[in-house]
Backbone:
């Protein structure tokens, strides 16, 4: 919380349309504002052609429903509900993503990496592939994809930045520092923000994304932060935000950003 006791905005929220969450935007708005959050941004998984990860995102035919359901929540809570999207960066997305992002008045586009090649590395269904993986190589490939994503200029913020740790596969800090230096330079040059994602608290790693070690490096590079619960049910909105604020302050941050019409604006932490 900041000095006035206000929690930050929650800018990472899913809905039932993504096939693995529950509730509509209005349900998340009610839950968030009952907890004292000042603002939310709905950021469901963007549809993707060609069957990419089809079971974990809305189909294109439901996108108009998504837009209207967010608008409904915005009408109920004027000025406090933003329209966002979580878009995966993956091979071939450049062919359709710019056109899709121009199709709606998004306030925020979260950029995520959930696949390395054909491996959904954070999917419990494919966790066995970690047993034969070269840990440094996985992290290196993941960060390479983050760099490619940032260089497209299509995304506003990086989601759950150290996601490969989800099942406890951490990289030693000296290796992590070495790999991170060029990645953070690219993110900073792209003018992107980076998310503190409290959803990691609810995963096997039991830790916010990113770790304090990583967050301090983010601060050193002058990259702004925003907060997301990665809520998949309304009760998860704002989850562990007080702890996330404390983590941000420990890393040296005194402000965070919110987005409107793809532009960020700082708020005190």
Residues:
């Amino acid at each position: 919380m900041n000095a006035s006791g206000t929690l930050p905005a929650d800018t990472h929220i899913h809905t039932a349309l993504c096939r693995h969450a529950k509730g509509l935007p209005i349900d998340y708005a009610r839950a968030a504002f009952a907890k004292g959050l000042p603002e939310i941004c709905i950021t469901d998984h963007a549809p993707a052609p060609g069957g990419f990860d089809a079971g974990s995102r809305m189909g294109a035919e439901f996108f108009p429903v998504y837009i209207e359901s967010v608008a409904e929540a915005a009408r109920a809570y004027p000025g406090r509900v933003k329209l966002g999207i979580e878009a995966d960066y993956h091979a071939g997305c450049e062919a359709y993503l710019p056109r899709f992002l121009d199709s709606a008045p998004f306030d925020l586009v979260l950029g995520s990496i959930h696949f390395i090649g054909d491996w959904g590395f954070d999917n419990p269904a494919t966790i066995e592939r970690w047993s034969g993986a070269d840990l440094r190589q996985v992290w290196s490939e993941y960060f390479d994809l983050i760099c490619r994503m940032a260089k497209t200029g299509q995304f506003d913020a990086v989601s759950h930045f150290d996601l490969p740790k989800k099942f406890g596969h951490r990289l030693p800090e000296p290796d992590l520092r070495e790999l991170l230096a060029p990645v953070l330079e690219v993110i900073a040059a792209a003018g992107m923000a980076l998310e503190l994602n409290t959803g990691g608290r609810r995963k096997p790693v039991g830790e916010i994304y990113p770790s304090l070690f990583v967050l301090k490096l983010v601060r050193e590079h002058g990259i702004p932060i925003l907060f997301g619960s990665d809520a998949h049910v309304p009760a998860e909105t704002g989850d562990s935000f007080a702890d996330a604020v404390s983590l941000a302050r420990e890393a040296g941050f005194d402000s965070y950003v919110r987005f409107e019409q793809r532009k960020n604006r700082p708020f005190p932490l």
User: Anything to note?
Assistant: The chain has a mean pLDDT of 95. The first strand starts at residue 10 and ends at 13. The two ends are 7 Å apart (CA to CA). Helices lie at 25-34, 63-76, 97-101, 135-151, 173-189, 212-220, 241-250.
